[in-house]
Amino acid sequence: MPKRNVRVVIVGAGFGGLEAAKALKRAAADVTVIDQQNHHCFQPLLYQVATAALSPADIAWPIRHILRPQLNATVLMENVQAVDVVKKCLHTQFGVVPYDYLIIATGAMHSYFGHDDWSDYAPGLKRIEDATRIRRSILIAFEQAEVIQNQEEQRRLLTFVIVGGGATGVEMAGAIADVARETLAADFRRIDPRSARIVLIEAGPRLLPTFPQGLSKYAHDTLTRAGVEVKTSTLVTKCDALGVDLKDGRIDASTVIWAAGVMASPVARWLNVEADRAGRVKVSPDLSVPAHPEIFVIGDAAAVFDAQGHQVPGIAPAAKQMGKYVGKLISSRIAGRATPKAFHYVHLGDLATIGRRAAVVKFGRLELRGFIGWVFWSLAHIYFLIGLRNRFVVAFNWFWDYITFQRGARLITEVPSSKRKSERQP
Ligand SMILES: Cc1cc2nc3c(=O)[nH]c(=O)nc-3n(C[C@H](O)[C@H](O)[C@H](O)COP(=O)(O)OP(=O)(O)OC[C@H]3O[C@@H](n4cnc5c(N)ncnc54)[C@H](O)[C@@H]3O)c2cc1C
């Protein structure tokens, strides 16, 4: 019988999974990449789709196309539902996929801290569908406010609440302020979009807790100047169809966006292994699962610590470094070479934008803020986008937005019937 190639199965074609697949390019292996979506999404720019600055196709690419040049890779669009670690196979909605090595890179999802029912009223931002849903909600709110006579309801429609003051919350709040104060300012006749109330709520004492104190303060002050109400040390106790309850009050709002917490995908349950409080699998120093040297968990789904005992953050560069490491490790094992030492994470830096012309950047010892930070942020993101077309389109859109204040992706499609009429009648 002819000798078959080693079967390496990668679940998830996000930042970690794709990098692992690429690192296996020269391995004598059949690499199968399984993802429930047909595209890889550049999540750091999802908020720009949600606020109509970019179109979905500018930040997502077909996985099949990305891996087309890699002849040892096969792409399957399937949803993995379970792993049989004894028989070494995956169960998907279409059947069974056997493996010799398994890399799980399924990322994380939103966490509503035990209140999953809030997700109906406060969508999070994780997939393209989430971004277009939020974009629709923001644009419809302005349209309905223009036609509704009841002033109380008009105020509710023009109130936008963002829960969570990390990078995504700060970026969303800044971008919605830009939409209201600049992009839409002259487009309406009955309402003044500039009067929109934008509230950013953070449970902790400051915004951007992973940044140095000075940059957090800069973000806070810049958002406040842009007209965003920043509420720190404030706990949301309930989200419903008409707004949010706080520990000490209530905000009626038509659009609530959840940027407060993440929970790893259910990998620990699939593998029946130990996880941390956020559901991340506690992996060994080589990112394998204890007692299973053939199974690796990487990216947002893994709890990994650096040499100093600090948790590796759930960000794209970390997932990419893990993917590359595991891909190389498996290639070495297949080739009978010495395997690389334990995974070593190198933190490159932290970046977040605050509206269309300011950003904060912490890059080693370098700290940037304001316009120079924004230029750095823009160049870094354009560099990491996939494909020349996307780099060009995104750069052009940002340049156009910068000089004209316009956002091109403002179409409302698929208006849900509940939104055809406002929840409260005039
Ligand atoms: C809104 C937002 C903004 C962000 N901004 C930044 C930023 O500015 N900078 C930064 O560095 N990081 C940022 N991040 C974090 C970064 O995107 C993640 O850390 C990174 O994507 C993690 O990579 P991953 O490979 O672990 O998972 P992901 O990239 O999330 O990929 C997981 C993949 O697994 C697939 N999948 C999941 N479950 C299944 C299943 N059961 N079957 C099949 N396929 C499955 C998904 O479809 C997805 O393609 C942001 C994240 C979000 C949500």
How do you describe this structure in short?
With 426 residues, this protein is α/β, with parallel strands linked by helices.
Would you kindly provide a written description of the structure presented here, covering whatever features stand out?
The structure is a single chain. The chain contains twelve helices and 25 strands. The protein has 426 residues and is of the alpha/beta class. Helix 6 links the parallel strand 11 (159-163) and strand 12 (197-201). Helix 1 runs parallel beside helix 9 (316-335) and helix 4 runs antiparallel to helix 5. The longest helix is centred in the N-terminal third of the chain and has 20 residues, at 128-147. The chain is elongated, with a radius of gyration of 23 Å. The protein starts with 5 loop residues before the first strand and ends in a 6-residue tail after the last helix. Bound molecules: flavin-adenine dinucleotide.
Detail the topology: elements first, then pairings.
Layout: E1 6-11, H1 15-23, E2 29-35, E3 39-41, H2 46-50, E4 60-62, H3 63-66, E5 73-77, E6 80-84, E7 89-92, E8 96-98, E9 101-104, E10 108-110, H4 128-147, H5 151-157, E11 159-163, H6 167-183, E12 197-201, H7 213-225, E13 228-231, E14 236-240, E15 243-246, E16 249-252, E17 255-258, E18 262-264, H8 267-271, E19 281-282, E20 288-289, E21 292-297, E22 302-303, H9 316-335, E23 350-353, E24 359-363, E25 366-369, H10 370-384, H11 388-404, H12 417-420
Parallel strand pairs: 1-2, 1-9, 2-5, 9-21, 11-12, 11-17, 12-13, 19-22
Antiparallel strand pairs: 3-4, 6-7, 7-8, 10-18, 14-15, 15-16, 20-21, 23-24, 24-25
Helix pairs in contact: 1-9, 4-5
